[in-house]
Amino acid sequence: MANANIRVRFCPSPTGNPHVGLVRTALFNWAFARHNEGTMVFRIEDTDAARDSEESYDQLLDSLKWLGLDWDEGPEVGGPHAPYRQSQRMDIYKDVAEKLLAGGYAYPCYCTTEELDARRDAARAAGRPSGYDGQCRDLTAEQKAAYETEGRTSIVRFRMPDEPITFTDLVRGELTFTPDNVPDYGIVRANGAPLYTLVNPVDDALMEITHVLRGEDLLSSTPRQIALYKALIELGVAKEIPAFGHLPYVMGEGNKKLSKRDPEASLNLYRERGFLREGLLNYLSLLGWSFSADQDIFTIPEMVAKFDIADVNANPARFDLKKAESINADHIRMLDVKAFAEACEPWLQAPHANWAPEDFDRAAWEAIAPYAQTRMTVLSEITANVDFLFLPEPVFDQPSWDKAMKGEPAALLTTAREKLVDADWSDPESLKNAVLAAGEAHGLKLGKAQAPVRVAVTGRTVGLPLFESLEILGKEKSLARIDAALAKLAG
Q: pLDDT digit string (tens) for 396-412?
């Protein structure tokens, strides 16, 4: 049953290219919101001026639009909790930090980096937890004044409770964190800049987020946020603590977490290779969730109708490029031919196309498209598969030429040409019978007989169905290419 009160958020930092793990998180939040007829909030966490960039911000918006993951509140849409960029909300964080200090929920910490490191090293050597030891937790006014007289600066540190924190994770069940594992933590830098540990929960509180679905790598920060939420509720800043669900890691090669540095992690790679958004989202949804035990291929509306966060698996999900490509190929075949032809258009133009624009023959493209559709894994493959139709002569792949032109290729091509001259060029079956007859004349089966013809006409040993390709290219051009191949062999 739908719950229209559900509010989720997707809050990336605009750094670098979008990562497929990030997209998976956005997808699960979006599907959860849409399934429940709830609200999807898109928020930008851009408080790190050294790493954030407008270029990355623009890429994020463009990527979400390409994927069709729309949002109800956020950049370009607005909403009751604007602004939705953290860099424009600094006054809010300053005000909340002051309330936390005044209420005794936070305190100034004057410890230097060197002092902290020395005490951590000593704790490790003694076998104790190495988190912050509470040195500045209960300073008197005189001690604070003395530190300030020394010229020390202070960060703001949140005071964690002295009892365990237990919560029910929507993916992992009940979890408990003991105080020694969750020490007091910084929320404001010495220069007054708020940290993620403050701004993220404050924004979730003020934007009334009900469910936080995020990566497993953030699980260790959840007890901190729950403690902060309790303080914010007591201060009248927050209404309730959201439910948390931590999504499984996406693993790459060697059982390592897929990182931004892994080539297959970049969303841009899949766009550039010509993945359909439906194919990519279908695959990414399977990284930690399943549609059913016996169905891997489904549409995005079908996913939304079925998605439940309770069905997400806590175990790490392995990213499998071959499986992603296979699922994308299925989605390409699910398109009607007109939609497939339109989807291929970018790869039939510069800079992908290696033919002159005036040589592009739309009638030939529309004729070959149905045959191409059944063989594509990604749309970018179309360029090399149809270039023989639009180039003055084929681009010979030398290994393909060497592989096909074994034995006595000139004799075979000469016989094939003779048979093809008399064939019916409006009937691929007639063209096939001509090459089959040429092969029989030289003691070859069709597979061996058609290889030299295919390379002579298309430049490659593999590609679209040969006899349909010959029909579409036409008798005059096809025979001229066989003649050119014979001349190349003679030369």
A: 888 889 999 988 999 99
